[in-house]
User: What shape does this take?
Amino acid sequence: MTGTDDPSYRLGLALAEVSRLWRHVLDARLKPLGLSTARWVALVNLSAHPEGLTQNALALRVGIKGSTLVRQLDLLEADGWVVRRAQPGDRRAKRVFLTPKARPALASIAAVGRDLRRELLRDCGDAEIRASVRLLGRVKARLQPLAGPLAGPLASDGRVPPRLVAAE
Assistant: This one.
């Protein structure tokens, strides 16, 4: 079997293409809300942590370097979505919190993702979707140790973690 005939080769290409296209369409649909997928992922992760997260912890959850996250946080803070406060006991560390503006907007943001998922998966059954999620979870579990700490945490039960679900 040649490389292009191998189903695993085709799966890798399909994953890369689908991921790129899904994110592109989602970015276009989030733009009217003043967001992008990257900014949305940060907001969703923060919404799960009302006590806030340090910038480093958020960067790990989002799967990007701290310096890259700082630019996203600058934009989110300038638009009033988040606020950064000094970490008690460590003046160098900053803790990030959602603002009151962000909380009600999360429902609108989630609706954009839900509508896109429904549109894209309209003829896919639940069993097919669950099987795909299980396959991707197993692949991710094997990739995680190879990718290093910036790849973010894997859910303890092998499910796709919130940061990837959020990017729907």
About this structure: Residues 154-168 have pLDDT under 50 and may be disordered. Residues 7-166 form a domain with the Arc Repressor Mutant, subunit A fold (CATH 1.10.10.10).
